Amino acid sequence: MFTVKRMNIPKRTIELVALLAISTTLFLFLHTRDLSSKLKEMEVKMQPEDLVSANQIISGDSAPSQGVRSMMKILQSTGEMTSLRPQQLNNTRKAQQEIIFFNRVPKVGSQTFMELLRRLSERNQFGFYQDRVQRVETIRLAPDDQVRLAALVSSYDAPAAYIKHVCFTNFSEFGLPEPIYVNIVRDPVERVISWYYYVRAPWYYVERKMAFPDIPLPDPKWLKKDFETCVLSGDRECKYLEGETREGIGDHRRQSMFFCGHEQECTPFNTEGALQRAKMAVEQHYAVVGVLEDLNKTLTVLEHYIPKFFQGAPNVYWDEISKYNTINRNTFKPHVNEEVKDIVRKNFTREIEFYQFCKQRLHKQFYALKLPEKP
Predict the structure, then answer these.
(1) Residue 262 a catalytic site member
(2) Looking at 165, 262, 285, 363, which residue is catalytic?
(3) Of 52, 155, 169, 313, which sits most exposed with the smallest number of CB within 10 A?
(4) More reliable by pLDDT, 375 or 234
(5) Could you give the C-alpha distances from 322 to 123, 126, 234, 249, 340, in angstroms and in order?
(6) Quick check: 266 and 260 in contact, CB under 8 A?
(7) What is the pLDDT of residues 267-310, one digit of tens each?
């Protein structure tokens, strides 16, 4: 009889082998990722929604959401379309210091937007600062931490821009000058799907492991779980229950929390109170809240409403960033059926309402500019 001796492989070696396997998978998909990026660029550039007329929007030629069409019909019928003025819709004038505070929402193209700001800082001569990568990222801060954050941002020499994943922080509550608040939003269901696959992407764990070597690798079963199965099986991770609170590193299921603030009332999921607080913060404090799906309008509004920082933003984006950068574009994300998305949408009613609110506001800001149409 032969005896087989089991070799004891150090745990560290196993982790390195697993990390190597993930890296190899990432390498194999690089070409697919590049192709996807080019196709996406062509798709967006072929839809220059930033210079369509109000009549085109109302007729549905540009296929905007029903909420935006309804708003434009009301504005046109009351004559408000012609009375819109940029200065009435621009909170930049309320800022007490020339510092951009970009409390970026995850998975709304914020990495690309951050790169845009970095390049514009060189072109338009302003300081560029961002929060360091953290092992555990807390977005809802205690009052003392909010004071420290506001003091840090206010300490930079103006003009400057500061970027961090964090909830809306009201500087004036701490006796500090108000900055220029900006942010980006995205269709809430598409965003939550993007987040689901982002935290499962091989390159995500390569980056995390390189930054924090002692972080354990996730369970392979969890990595392989697809979003459709997660929703249809009633998995705890994909249940979006009204009033539910998830603390810890932050509630990344929704983007309204990044506008609502740090208060306890902002933590329950999909509630009326949190929705109204988020809307109020946008209306009273934010100069521009861009929309990922309306990228051309977003860049145009930023350039005209905050010119000191965003002069030349459309050209820099289309000529430099979109052509050569594929920041955080996850080609590992599979197609999700509309039926599954509809199931999720039923529990995202107030998140969708907040998204539509931000989108309507952006459209009003754009049409107030009364830019000439392209020939």
Answers:
(1) no
(2) 165
(3) 155
(4) 234
(5) 17, 22, 38, 31, 30
(6) yes
(7) 888 899 999 999 999 999 999 999 999 999 999 999 999 999 99
